[in-house]
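Dear colleagues,

As part of the handover before I leave the project, I'm documenting each prediction I ran so the next person doesn't have to rerun anything. This entry is a single chain, and its sequence is reproduced below.
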Amino acid sequence: MLTSLLAFLGACTLVAASPGPSTVLIVKQSLRSRRAGFLTVLGNETGVFVWGVVAAFGLTALLTASQVAYDVLRVVGAVVLVWFGVQALRQARRTEEDGARGAGGWESVEQSGWASYRGGLLLNLANPKAAVFALSFLPQFVPEGAPHLPAMVGLAVLWAVYEVGYYGLYVWFVGRMKAVLSRAGARRRLEQVSGGVLLLLGLRMALDG
């Protein structure tokens, strides 16, 4: 049991360390404030838990069995990523305009807590690869002889909680760098980079049949 648990946490670390849309969004929101970043993390990990539970009940197998269902969710996910990318690029432009006027930058457009949480949740739930990955990932770590459903749900909880701590370090680090990153030029470039990355990921998902 302990060996399986340690192997699972090691695998969770590798999964979290792999850059993806959620990482980009978490860093982007953390640039606004630690609160926005942490709530984005909570939203994302709610999505991780949901997909884990769905996988425990075997429902994500429908996505692998039905090309239509997978494609619908893939297109929705692509639209969500493109929307986040466009929002980031628009924010970069507003940051430039605020800098020219001497306005407050990010702080003047701080999102509500619900918007940050919802963004993290939506980005995760709209990713069909997250669903399929949960289906293939979690069963590997169910201890032999353990009840399948409770074990899978327990692993989903552990996965989500562990990633809250892991991504919380990202939020903390970005917060520590806020003094450097708060310059208007740096803010604008970071928003442009994150927006471009999200757009490219969205286009890739749309074209990935």
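The radius of gyration is 18 Å. DSSP finds ten helices and no strands in the chain.

All the best with the project,
I.
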